[in-house]
Amino acid sequence: MAKTCWLERDKRKRKTVEKYAKLRAELKEKGDYVGLSMLPRDASPTRLINRCRVSGRRRAFIRRFQMSRMTFRELASQGMIPGVTKSSW
């Protein structure tokens, strides 16, 4: 499990991105890059990191299932993820 401070930081970044999304879109449309640079750094969506919903891990993230590869494999082998079956040939 990821440390709580990392998870809280990620939540805070997501809130900031959401808060400034409309303003960023307007400034980009106008081409006001000076105004964009005045916004907080965390207002940019590129600073968000995909994290596993279960464990909080950020590496080996599978977007389709919103979880890391280890959590995915564990839950898939237990049959907890609908529509996922172990392949065999």
Task: Describe the secondary-structure layout.
Blueprint (H helix, E strand, L loop, with lengths): L3 H27 L2 H6 L22 E2 L4 E2 H10 L11
Antiparallel strand pairs: 1-2
Keywords: Ribonucleoprotein, Ribosomal protein, RNA-binding, rRNA-binding
Organism: Prosthecobacter fluviatilis
Function: Binds 16S rRNA, required for the assembly of 30S particles and may also be responsible for determining the conformation of the 16S rRNA at the A site.
Name the helicity range.
40-55%
The side-by-side strand order for the widest beta sheet comes to 1-2
Structural class: mainly alpha
Succession of helices and strands: HHEEH
Largest sheet: 2 strands, antiparallel
Alpha carbon gyration radius:
18 Å
How many helical elements? 3
Low-confidence stretches: none
Report mean pLDDT, rounded to a whole number: 91
The oligomerization state is single chain
Shape: elongated
InterPro entries: Ribosomal_uS14, Ribosomal_uS14_bac/plastid, Ribosomal_uS14_CS, Ribosomal_uS14_sf
Organism: Prosthecobacter fluviatilis
Subunit structure: Part of the 30S ribosomal subunit. Contacts proteins S3 and S10.
Family: Belongs to the universal ribosomal protein uS14 family.
